[in-house]
């Protein structure tokens, strides 16, 4: 089997696993009172559903691909980099705070990274039964239909997602929001950076900026945006990015320069 066919099979597996994980997480979401919930830090929650969903994903992926690496949000402390090894990068429930607040803006994220490039991306929103998928060089889809980023040229033409992480000071988000409003734009925050990036790929958001994202939140969505014709700075270029995360900018081509100004990098 050639490498292209192998990637097609991996994508089909990732889609199946994401749907299975989403169905499990959705059942947990319907019975929030039965979950154990703990705090990992300020505005950073984890639930029994996160742990069990990640375990389900890991078991199913490694059943098919036992030699692959696995980097999940809930088990990231166990991650070890092996040279030349393909790695699944997973957030079992991106948007845990909305999840525990009974708000349906959360999703399941899977990406496959090989030789410092994101080859495959799947983001599944079980609440709307929307599955976003991409393979590098082959375009991006939602439920099988092609995705395209916005053709807008002005920040005034729609909404820009702004994310925030307590890993950076408040000014890292407040200053970009001020610049966005001054440019006649408007911000949006749903609580899931992965879902926001999928919405950029779908043209629903003009752009998305977050001053710091972990790789399990960002690499899948970044591939979706690029394969949908947009621009992003989010590349898996080093072990440091994989382990420590980075700022993320993503937008339609006509908006990206304006987003750089909003983010303060231009």
Automatic annotation (TrEMBL):
Cofactor: Mg(2+)
Signal peptide: none
UniProt key word Membrane: no
Gene Ontology terms: biological process: inositol metabolic process; signal transduction; transcription antitermination
Reactions mediated catalytically: a myo-inositol phosphate + H2O = myo-inositol + phosphate
Keyword Hydrolase carried by entry: yes
Enzyme class: hydrolase
Family of the protein in this entry: Belongs to the inositol monophosphatase superfamily.
Protein's UniProt name: Nus factor SuhB
Protein source organism: Kineobactrum salinum
Source species taxonomy: Bacteria, Pseudomonadati, Pseudomonadota, Gammaproteobacteria, Cellvibrionales
